Amino acid sequence: MPYRFREDIAPADVAIEAWGKTLEELFSSCAEALLGTMVEDPGEVVRSREVPINLEDDELDLLLFSFLQELIYYKDAQRLLLHAG
């Protein structure tokens, strides 16, 4: 698992520490951690289709924020849980 939940940082919210060898792996780790907050076992979420997500930002932290927000949007608006990668 390329992430861990950090309960010592944000007791009222969710904080994670994620890693990857590439930027793509890091974003995938963050997406899996987000999915892990939505379902008990992210591995049980079936990969049945691909949804392209195209985002741009000059700031890496804002790009990651937008990416995670997009995943939350799909969950809320379309009742669709997504894996990254």
Descriptive overview:
The model has no long low-confidence stretch (mean pLDDT 91). This protein is mostly helical. Helices cover 41% and strands 7% of the residues. It has a two-stranded antiparallel sheet. The chain has one domain. The radius of gyration is 13 Å and the shape is globular. The protein starts with a strand and ends in a 7-residue tail after the last helix.
Characteristics:
globular; 2 helices; two-stranded antiparallel ribbon
Total discrete domains: 1
Uncertain parts:
none
| Total count of helical runs of at least 4 residues | 2
- Fraction of residues in helices? 40-55%
The residue-averaged pLDDT reads: 91
Q: How large, in whole angstroms, is the Cα Rg?
A: 13 Å
- Distance between the terminal alpha carbons, to the nearest Å? 14 Å
**What is the global morphology?**
globular
Main sheet characteristics: 2 strands, antiparallel
Structural class: mainly alpha
Task: Give the helices and strands as they follow along the chain.
Answer: EEHH
How are the strands of the biggest sheet laid out side by side? Answer: 1-2
The number of distinct β-strands equals 2
Strand fraction equals: 5-15%
